[in-house]
Amino acid sequence: MIRGRTSRRGLLRCLLAAVVVAIGFAAPSRAAEPHRLALQISDDDPVKMRAVLDVAANVSRHYSGQGEDVEIVVVAFNGGLDMLLDDRSPVKERLTNFLKSMPNVSFIACGNTLETLAVKEGRRPPLIEGVSITQVGVAVLMDLAEKSWTIVRP
What we know:
Strand order of the largest sheet: 4-3-2-1-5
Number of strands: 5
CATH superfamily of the largest domain: DsrEFH-like
C-alpha cells in the first residue's frame, strides 16, 4: 500500500512537471518593446542633415542586426526644415531612399515653420513625398520624450 501511494505521488509529480513544461512552451512570448529614437534637426546646415541620416541608418542597422525593432522619427523645424523641402533639400536623394527602404524611419515637418516660409516666400514650399506634418515640431519632441523616447540632436 505504501508503494502504491509513492508511485501515485511520483506519477503526479511527473504529470505536474509535464504540465508546467507544456505551459511554458505554449505561453506566447511577449515581444520586447521596440527601441524608440527621435532625431531633431533645426539647423539649415547640410552637414548636420547628413549626420541625422547617418545616425538613423546606423541605429537602424545596429538593432536590426541584433534582431530587435527600432522606431526612428526625424523632426525638422526652423532652418532644419530645408532638409524635408522638395525644392531645396541638400539630402533629397538620400532622404527619398530612406522613405522607400526604411519603413521604421519617418520624417515630420513643423507646420509653424512651413507657415512662416509661406508668408516669407509668398507660397508654401513643397515637402518631399512621404513627409508628414505636425503643427508644432517641438511639441512632438516633448510628447515623445514624455513617452520615454530618446531624443538626440546630432
